[in-house]
Every structure is written in C-alpha cells, then in structure tokens.
Amino acid sequence: MQTDNLELKKLVYLYLMNYAKSQPDMAIMAVNTFVKDCEDPNPLIRALAVRTMGCIRVDKITEYLCEPLRKCLKDEDPYVRKTAAVCVAKLHDINAQLVEDQGFLDTLKDLISDSNPMVVANAVAALSEIAESHPSSNLLDLNPQSINKLLTALNECTEWGQIFILDCLASYMPKDDREAQSICERVTPRLSHANSAVVLSAVKVLMKFMEMLSKDLDYYGTLLKKLAPPLVTLLSAEPELQYVALRNINLIVQKRPEILKHEMKVFFVKYNDPIYVKLEKLDIMIRLASQANIAQVLAELKEYATEVDVDFVRKAVRAIGRCAIKVEQSAERCVSTLLDLIQTKVNYVVQEAIVVIKDIFRKYPNKYESVIATLCENLDSLDEPEARAAMIWIVGEYAERIDNADELLESFLEGFHDESTQVQLQLLTAIVKLFLKKPTETQELVQQVLSLATQDSDNPDLRDRGYIYWRLLSTDPVAAKEVVLAEKPLISEETDLIEPTLLDELICYIGTLASVYHKPPSAFVEGSRGVVHKSLPPRTGSSESAESPEAAPTGAPPGEQPAVIPAQGDLLGDLLNLDLGPPVTGPPLTAAPVQMGAVDLLGGGLDSLMGDEAEGMGGTNFAAPPAGTMPANLGAPIGGGLGDLFDLTSGVGSLSGSYVAPKAVWLPAMKAKGLEISGTFTRQVGSISMDLLLTNKALQVMSDFAIQFNRNSFGLAPAAPLQVHAPLSPNQTVEISLPLNTVGSVMKMDPLNNLQVAVKNNIDVFYFSTLYPLHILFVEDGKMERQMFLATWKDIPNENEAQFQIKDCPLNAEAVSSKLQASNIFTIAKRNVEGQDMLYQSLKLTNSIWVLAELRVQPGNPNLTVRLLAAPPRSLAHSLAHSLAHTHTDTHTPTHTHTHTHTHTHTREGRLQHQEEEILCSKSPCPLEGPRRHPRPPSPASSRAGAAVGA
Amino acid sequence: MIHSLFLINSSGDIFLEKHWKSVVSRSVCDYFFEAQERATEAENVPPVIPTPHHYLLSVYRHKIFFVAVIQTEVPPLFVIEFLHRVVDTFQDYFGVCSELVIKDNVVVVYEVLEEMLDNGFPLATESNILKELIKPPTILRTVVNTITGSTNVGDQLPTGQLSVVPWRRTGVKYTNNEAYFDVIEEIDAIIDKSGSTITAEIQGVIDACVKLTGMPDLTLSFMNPRLLDDVSFHPCVRFKRWESERILSFIPPDGNFRLLSYHVSAQNLVAIPVYVKHNISFRDSSSLGRFEITVGPKQTMGKTIEGVIVTSQMPKGVLNMSLTPSQGTHTFDPVTKLLSWDVGKINPQKLPSLKGTMSLQAGASKPDENPTINLQFKIQQLAISGLKVNRLDMYGEKYKPFKGIKYMTKAGKFQVRT
C-alpha cells in the first residue's frame, strides 16, 4: 500500500473497500497508510485516501478517520476539500453522533462560503443529504450573504453541483419581492442548461419565487415567457425524462396555465411514444383545452380513439367527455364525436363512450337526450360494470322518454345477483325512479327489485338503500318523489384537479419524487416523520391590494372549488344516487370524531397530526379547535361537577337552579362542513337537558337534523328527537333545549362522563364528544335521613373514600350549603369542631348511587377540605370496593375523585360486551334505523292503501 | 443519492450490479420484474417504480435496462440524466453498448462506475476526465495488457478535475489542429390523413469534434441567431456573451462533444421536405385490401432526399402483403406485422411507389385502427430551419486551425397518419 504507483494504490484501496467489512481486523492495519496518504504532497492522493477511507464502513476505521478528515476539510487544495465534504456525509451515514460530536457539521457549513464553486456545491449536497435524516436540525440556515455565495457558485460549478445548489435555493424564503426577483434573474440562465435536471430545478426555484412577484411587474411577464421553451424542450428528450417532465408540467399547468397555453401541439401523442408518456400527454391536453384550441384537440382525440392500445383508447374517449364538460361550446361536437365512435361498434370504445355520455347528461341536462336511442341500441354489448351502471342510470333518469324503459330494466333484473354492486345499486335506483315516473305499470318491477335488494342480498349498502327506498315509498310517495327525483347538482370538469394547498406544496417539490407521485413527501418517504412542510411564499410587494382581486382566477382559491358534487361519504347524496359522479378531491377527514384523545393530540401526537392533516385542512391551526371545544373539560373533567359549583366568582351559578356552565363549542364549523354546535348541560326541576346552539356557517341551507348519543356511563339519552323546526339558512343560529333522560344503554366510558354524540343533517353525519358535568345527574331526593347517613358513613370501606381540597372559596358554611342545595347536594348535619365548620352532605345519582361528603370550612381560610364517600347499592358493594382500589392512588387530584365508584355498577346483562357496536345504536327514533328492526317491511303498495306503517 | 445500479437484459437477468453505499439486495429488482411483466413491451416499463423501502429509476437503452436504486428523496431527473450519461460513457468507451461488450470489459466498467460516483454524488462524468483516469480499451492495449499484465488504469492524475475548466484536460497537443462542427436537425412531425401538418418541430444540435492544441478560446457566430430562442448549452459556453451578443464563446472540451442543442417550436413555420400519398383500404366483405404509397419531395431547397425508409405497423388482421416497389426493397414480417420499405434516394422525375394487396383473415371484420406510416430520410447540406454559421474565430493560441462546418437534416419522429 505504501507504493507510489497510483494504479496499484487504487486497486489496493478498491480491495480494501470491498473486504473491510468481512475482515475488520485486517482492515485496521491499513489505517496508518490512509493517515499517511492524507498528508501526501499530491492533492489527488490526499483526496483519494480520504475518499476511500469514507467508503470503509467499519466503526474502528471511522474513529481514525476523524483527524485526517478534519485536516482535509481545511486543505489548501479545493479538490481535497470538495472530496472531504462528501466524506462528511459518508461518515454521517455510518455514525451520525460522531460527526456531530466532532463538529464536522459546522466545518461543513463554513465550506458553503468557500471560494471554490465545486467545494460549495459538494458542501451543499452533503448538507442536504445530512439534513434529510435530521429534519429538525437547522443545517441549511440560509441568509442573504450565503445565498449570494450560492448564486455565484451556481455559475461555475458542475451540472450536478448546480442541481444541489438550486434545490437548496428553492428552500430559501426571500425577504421581499426585490430579493426574489434578483434571485430569479440569476437563476434564469440555468433554463438553458443541457442537463434536464438542472432545468427542472431552476424551474422549481422560479415557480416558487414567482409567487412573491407582483403580477404588474414587467419582469413577471418576461419570466412567464421564459419558462415555456425549456419545458417544451424537455419533451424532446428521452422518454424517461419526458415522463418525469410531464408529471411536473401537469402540476405547472394547474398552477399557472398561462405558461403553456400556446404550446398545445407539443403534447400531441406520437404513435410510438411509450404508454406512460401517452397517458400523461393526454392528461395535460385536457388541462390545456380551451375554446380556442378545442377543435384541434378533438380531432386529435378522435384519432387516438382508433389506436391499438386499449388503455390509451379508453383514456382518449374519456378525454373527449371531459372536454365536453370543460368547454361548453364544444359539447355538441364532443357528443357527435362520441356518437361516431359508438358507431364503430368497437366494444370497449362504446362502453367508455357511454360512461362519459352519462357525465355529459349530468352537466347539460335535457340537451342531448336525442342520442339515447343510439345508446340503447348498444345495450347488449355492454359487459363492464361501469358502462352497465352508466347505461342503467341513463335509462332510469330519462325513463319517461324511453318507451320501453321498463322492459330494458327488467332485462337487467334477470341476472341481478350476478351483477356487481355498482350495477345493482344503479338498477335499484333506476327502477325506483321509473316507478315514481310511471307508477301504474311498474309496481311489480319495483317490488321485485326491492325484495331482491333487501332480502336476497348480502351487501349492506344495497340492503340499506333498498330499505330506505322501501320506507320512503311506503310512508310518503310524494316525499319520495321529491327526494329521488330531486334536481341533481351539476358536475364540474375540474374534479381531478389537485387540491390547491397540496398543489402549492407540490410546486415546492418540482423535480422531486413527490412531483412524480403528486403526493407530498410525508405521504411516502420513509422515516420522514418530521418532514418540514414547504409552502409557497406569500406574495408581497406594494401592489398587493391592487392585485388581490385578480389573484383569484389563477390561484384557484378554495372558494372557487367546485362544491357541486357532494363528498362520497355524503349520506344524502348517496341516497340520491349521485355516487356515479367522479370522485371528489378534498380533505376527507372533516368529520373525524373528536375524542378525548384530543389531549394526546395536543401533546405527543401533535407532530403527526400536523404532518398529515394540517395541509389538508388548509392551515396549521387545525389543532386549535379541539382545545377550544372543551376548555373546562380538559382541565377538570370530573371535578367540573364540584369545582364548578364552587366557582362562585363567575356569578353564573345562581341560587335558583343548579349551576350551568357557559356554552362551549363542541363541534367547530370547520370539522362539520359548516355546522357549528355549542352547548351546555343543565338540570332544572328534575329534568336534565342539553342546551344546544346550532349555527350554520356554510353557504347552503341545512335541514333534517337528528341527534344520537352513544352508550355512556349513565345511560344518558335524548328524551325527544332533536327538533329544528325550520331549515337553518346560512349564518342563522338556532337555540334548542334537548330534554335528556337516563334510561339509555349503559357502557362505561373513559373518562366516566364522556359523551359521544352524532348529529346528522342533510349534508352529513358529524361526530363529536363532550364531557358533561356530573351534577346534572344529582337527583332531587338526594337527602338522606340522619340515621341512615350515620349508618352508611360507617359502612363505607376506606377504599371508597377520597379527600381533596377546593381552593379559593371564601364562603361561610351557610352560603356553601345553600349553594350546594341548589345543585341537589343536601346538608344533613353541621358540626363545629375546633372552630371549623363541618358540613355533612349527601347526594344521589340517577343510578341510585349515594355519595356522602364531609366538608370542612375554616373561617378565614378560603380553602375547603372535602371528604367523599361513595355508597353503592349493597349488592354491588364488593365489586365497587374492588374497583375503587386503584382510584385511591390519585385522590389528591380533584379531577379524579369519587368517580370510579360507578365503574362496574352497571353490568346489566353483559351490555359491556357490545362495545364495538356502531355509534348510532341507541333506541331513539332515527328515521333511517326503522326498517332494520322489521324483517319484513310492509310493501309500498299496501302502505299506499293506508295500511299501518312500521315504526 | 444513488445507492446502487443494476443492469438487466431484456430476458430479465441481472448481469451487473454496483453499489456505492451499503449493499442493496438483488431482490429489490423483483419489483422491477413485476412491472416489466405488466408492461407489454420493454419500452413501456414505467421509469419510476416505488417499492416499500427503495425507489427504482430506470432507463431502457440498447436493449438493456439500467436500474438505479435510491432510498431518499432525490430528483428523479438527476438520476435518469446520470443513467443516460453512464450509457453514453459506455458507448464512448466501447463503441457500442451491449450486454456482450459490457461483460467483456467488466473490469473497465467497474472502474468507470467507481470514478463516476462517490457515495452517490457524481464525481467525474466528463468523458475527457474519465478517459484520462481509465484508458478506453483498444485492441493494441488489450494485447499489450495481456502480455505485460498491466491494466487500463491511467498512471496520470486527472489534473483536469482541478482546473476551472474541468471539461478540458491540460497539455493537449496535436500536429493537425482541426475543429469540425456538424449542424444536425431532426424534424419531428405528425401529418394527418389529408397531408396537412398537425404539428412539426425541429430538434437541432451542433456536435463538435475539436482537436486543438493548448487552451484555445473559440467564438462561433450565426447569420440568423434569432432562430435560436430555445437553446441548451454545453457547460463550456459563456452564457453572458450569448445573452448580450448572441455569440457562442467557449473553451472547448477536447474531442467530441455536443456544443448546443436547440428547439425550433411548432409556432414557427417548419418546412416539410417530403410528402406521402397513401391509399390503404380494407373492405368489409372481401379478405383483400388495397395498399398504395407514393413518396415525393416538397420544400427541399433543391437538395436530394436520401436514405428514405418507410415503415408501418400493419393491423393484426393483416395476414400477408403482396407488394411491388418501383424502387428499393421491401419486407413484411407476418409475425410482428411490420412493413418496411427501404426506398433510397428520391428521384423527383420518377417518384418511388409501393403498390399491391393485403390479404386479411378470412371472415374477420375489417381492422379498427389505421396504420401509421413512419418515415426516415436524410438531406445533406441543408439545415431545414435555415440556421447558418457565420464564422468561427480562435483566440488564445497562435496556430491557424483547420475549420469545417457540415449541415444535415434528418427525420426524427416523422409520422403520417392514414
């Protein structure tokens, strides 16, 4: 190894690299030579030594590497420094802690201001790689000075170095629009680089910083013009490069369609393009389609529809439909093109055409129905579920214009059980529609399909829909007509657009894998828990206010989002058979139940929550609402019961009734599609009620409210349906008092007073959970007789006792006593012991559990001491004692006092076993629940005749 | 950064692997094979394939898949560009890039790959520098090596890596100093049934072969630089000069390199030098179809069209074709249904044509798709965009070099729909 022959040296090094792992002890003998070579007068040998050493992944060797590496990082020769910079990244990969301890990261940061551009580039590359495994560390802390250094280095380093530097620049946030512009100006020349990766990285920087430039600037326009040619050039490269470029262009045209609006032709498909390129080109063609170029696009699409590749042909046919929906003026031509294609009788073309024609009908109702006849001719050739479902939808929708609609649908019905669910659902709906339109002739048909769907099917969706129709038809055919034949919302063509916040994030990731998958890196990059979300910089500049109105059309703000298609999970939308509509993009997690896990969410789980959902929810304030939802509850879930009673400073707790907490927001509008619910619980003269404040913060009218409680510890349940008399129009608020009883199903909750509620309206079902104050459960006859009190007091074992203090309650014994009595806590006796007032009190819960208390009031001391004893029904005393054993440990925290007394008191008939049953399970009159309890609902015909209708 | 590289031949064998960091198991390629199986043709294998722990980025060239494995978020274009660079380097080293050649030169291949990446970072990708480090194999050297037992590793240090012009090695000496520039333009076009142009664009390149002593500084100017509004330069070109004066000023790499590539977009009118008249018809009733193609010149600026080859993928239903060409030779492969007609030169007085019948499967309905005609041709001494080099000057060295400029127009993806 100590040879001077470079060739031999290289070979020995190569050998070492490969075998060091298997024979680490032997490899260590070579260390000395490496160290020596690191001081060789020849810079290339120094570099080679440090490079090779980094490749030997043996811990012992890495220890010896540190000193030579430190020297090489400060070497006088740039070639050595540049190699050493990469070596730091290597070392970090092997032993990250070592690198940090040795301070190499700081040295690496210093190299960013090196005089040699190659060194700068490699330092940036190494830092970026290290930063990726250390998302939290602020390694690439950029400031205007270092940015300037990077920009200078950019012009002189190798093409690969330019990529690293540009990627690094893209993560910088300029102070103002001037700085952004000057960076853009210096990056623009990179658009002419021969290396496409450099070009795309430059495009990323420009797209991002452009966001900060005012649209009135001349420079803005110039930049837009400059962006088009390099993007087009990327498309003449090798197919693999084209593919990546096209995926990115797809993002760019969504963000700034003006860049490529004149370049439609370059996206025309060549017959020998690889299929992945063809499909991407087609996608972009549709995005660029406008009134100006639609004729050309249609001619092309028609051409593609005759190609060989089936996938491509299908997509081309679909594209024609999308053009029709997007460019209204072209709809007629599109329809006639589709008809031409149907005439070809090529099976898969016909099927695709029918699917898209259905969408066209949705967009332009009552316009192109003349083609139905042609479609019907091809009924028999349809063998794909989607096409069959589309055709059935058309037949059902236009049943009144198709003379033999009943025959057609009947023919489908014959093989009902062999159809896919999609077709079955459509068939069911279509026949119901037909029945509503032509009731006289089709009664048998509808009965047949309803019984097929409800009795012979295992599919719950189908069964439920069957029952819903059945009940709807049997109770009120007029209402059924209103519901089933209601005017359907129009569909829009932009349904496959990427959601704007995601798009903005993806723009920051142009040129990366994220841009190829159209997903944020957090969604797929391994170990990216702490990936920092990138976002476009806000627009700054003097003309901000002036240009904000025109910002709307380009940015596609949320307000412009097509809200016309209800989400897939939309209950009512589903009933109205809108599920054929294209899938809707958007945050799907709006109705996630707020559980007590919120505490966790706010704490440890916050990172993941923010990571995954904050983007979708459109801001980082996502975590805030749950906190505001239950302020009191989070702080003192149970103690709320007593703590609130003593909360005398607030003045709310009047003597006339039990304490009422102020209303808290339970369900923020953001999580419930615009419905905001706030409320509180009260107890007045023996009845519990839930006072609700419903506010409609959406733009549409809300109606059909219903409420359900999940099973809970005390069997709380609504005593009457939620009655909102008039539909709730936007920005309207209605106050409702919902009477509750305690005869519902019981299941122990954690925390004990947790209540999970489901609220339904015409838009969706929303879930939230809240904590109710326990004192609403204190019954009026909670006054125990003295003798009884004494006996019970003695009987209660020590385990059932808890003691705590209530702070800052400057009241005398009488005042306390009267206040508590208002909340059904009765004073049985009063003693004075050593100047302290002792109050003995009792209360009874709705489930007949007695709780006894001793309250010590010291004059002059604002703190009250409370001893609580829980007296269970005798039969359960044993198990209760057992359950209380562990509560004793935290008696000092008032939040957890006597509550566990109820833990096991209600194992009525093993109800606990049904814990995983669905949330809407109680016995209250949910309109959708009815039929399930009736194995054989009355037929619609009989009910129309006035027969009794099931509950 | 790039973790590993696998070379896979079209029958699905991994015949070479190289790891720059820790070793990634071969089994990662199973995901690639799956995708390969799904794609009907090799060309259709998607270039980016996600696997649970890695990402596979591949290019397909010379019937070999070059599959790079990455583990972190790396710009895919960076990887794909690099892979293409690897292929170019192999081609440069061995003349052709095929499985056989790679296997034969496996030592050089490993040496080259080792020099190209360090820990996944590109190290030396310029072919000049690489060739200094590792000498390309020649017959003479192979013979010498076998006799003397030496290898191809250069005994010089790559001094070029240290200089400010990394693309050029120092101390270059030639007895004949010459600089040749080839302006090559390719026409990509789609022509529709009726003969009108749907889209046409020109992809141009200027390839250079510069063998000059010392450190020459060249400038190249054009008669009509306005044409070049969408250009990509070799790193040696000084961009500022181009911006301000529209002059290419550069210190050239030694040997062959691509000085610039440019793109003349569809918006500028592109002259189409050739037309195709076709009549391909199937009849529903008969099992015979008619086939007739005539090729003729159009807007050629008086130059001859040479090397014309017409290919067309016929529909599956075509069993055989019986055709007579007026010139050249034709073949029809009944298995792949590929018709190929080597026309040669086009004589404007006597236009070449290919006529005859196609026999179709008896009883089958007529094919749904229309065959697309693919055209290849060459025109010497013409740059169809009209680009012309004005002059080439050399500074920095005393001698007088020999200079040459050549123009050529070729068909790129030139397709005629029927």
Automatic annotation (TrEMBL), chain A:
Q: Report biased composition (Low complexity) as residue ranges.
A: 540-554, 941-951
Q: State the residue spans of region: Disordered.
A: 529-564, 888-951
Identify the keywords attached in UniProt to this record, alphabetized: Acetylation, Membrane, Protein transport, Transport
User: Keyword RNA-binding: yes or no?
Assistant: no
Q: Where is the composition biased (Basic residues)?
A: 895-905
Q: Could you tell me the Gene Ontology terms of the biological process aspect for this record?
A: intracellular protein transport; vesicle-mediated transport
**Which subcellular locations apply to this protein?**
Endomembrane system
Which SMART domains does the entry mention? Alpha_adaptinC2, ARM, B2-adapt-app_C
GO CC, any one term? endomembrane system
What superkingdom heads the lineage? Eukaryota
Q: What is its main location?
A: membrane
Output the Pfam families linked to this UniProt entry: Adaptin_N, Alpha_adaptinC2, B2-adapt-app_C
Report domain Clathrin adaptor alpha/beta/gamma-adaptin appendage Ig-like subdomain positions.
659-769
Q: Name the InterPro entries for this protein.
A: AP_beta, ARM-like, ARM-type_fold, Armadillo, B-adaptin_app_sub_C, Clathrin/coatomer_adapt-like_N, Clathrin_a/b/g-adaptin_app_Ig, Clathrin_app_Ig-like_sf
Compositional bias (Basic and acidic residues) spans? 906-917
> What range(s) does the Beta-adaptin appendage C-terminal subdomain domain occupy?
778-890
| Homology family | Belongs to the adaptor complexes large subunit family.
PANTHER family (alphabetical): ADAPTOR COMPLEX SUBUNIT BETA FAMILY MEMBER
The identity of this protein, by name, is Adaptor related protein complex 1 subunit beta 1
Q: Lineage of the native species?
A: Eukaryota, Metazoa, Chordata, Craniata, Vertebrata
TrEMBL record, chain B:
For the MHD domain, which residue ranges apply? 176-417
Lipid bilayer topology? Peripheral membrane protein
GO terms for cellular component: axon cytoplasm; clathrin adaptor complex; cytoplasmic vesicle; cytoplasmic vesicle membrane; GABA-ergic synapse; glutamatergic synapse; Golgi apparatus; presynapse
UniProt keyword Lyase present: no
Which PANTHER family did the record assign? AP COMPLEX SUBUNIT MU
Protein name in the entry: AP-3 complex subunit mu-2
Q: Mainly resides where?
A: Golgi
Source organism phylogeny: Eukaryota, Metazoa, Chordata, Craniata, Vertebrata
Q: Which gene encodes it?
A: AP3M2
| Subcellular location(s) per record | Golgi apparatus; Cytoplasmic vesicle membrane
- Superkingdom of the organism of origin: Eukaryota
Task: Please provide the Gene Ontology terms (biological process) for this protein.
Answer: anterograde synaptic vesicle transport; endocytosis; intracellular protein transport; synaptic vesicle endocytosis
Coiled-coil regions, chain positions? none
- A Pfam family matched by this chain, by name? Adap_comp_sub
Q: Of which family is this protein a member?
A: Belongs to the adaptor complexes medium subunit family.
Q: Which UniProt keywords apply?
A: Cytoplasmic vesicle, Golgi apparatus, Membrane, Protein transport, Transport
